[in-house]
Design brief:
- By secondary structure, the chain is an alpha+beta fold.
- Helices cover 13% and strands 28% of the residues.
- The longest helix has 7 residues, at 83-89.
- It is elongated, with a radius of gyration of 17 Å.
Length: 102
């Protein structure tokens, strides 16, 4: 049910495209450090290469997974699914996530 409405697989609402955002990691930097960034600089993220990537629909985390390459594009293999978060959001704004200053 979304926003107090029961959905069936033939419901046109299910055909609406929604942008997804994959968050690879985050970091915190001072304004001074940001001002000193130059092309070629490296920003070390808090996450390790083995940590899962979070995938958001709007501000709602819908799944986590691992990054890999497929046909020359980045792809995410879904490891954990959180569709209850999408359903419980019901069109309402979910709590903002901490972008970690990155």
């Amino acid at each position: 049910m979304i926003a107090n409405r029961e959905l069936s697989w033939s419901d046109p609402l299910l055909d609406i495209a929604t942008p997804l955002t994959a968050v690879l990691g985050s970091a915190r930097m001072s304004v001074g450090e940001l001002m000193e960034l130059r092309r070629g600089a490296t920003i070390l993220l808090e996450q390790t290469v083995n940590d899962p990537v979070q995938v958001y629909a709007g501000s709602v985390e819908v799944c986590q997974g691992t990054v890999y390459a497929q046909r020359g594009h980045y792809a995410i293999r879904v490891e954990t699914l959180n569709l209850m978060a999408v359903e419980s959001a019901g069109g309402r704004e979910a709590p903002a996530r901490d972008a970690g200053g990155a």
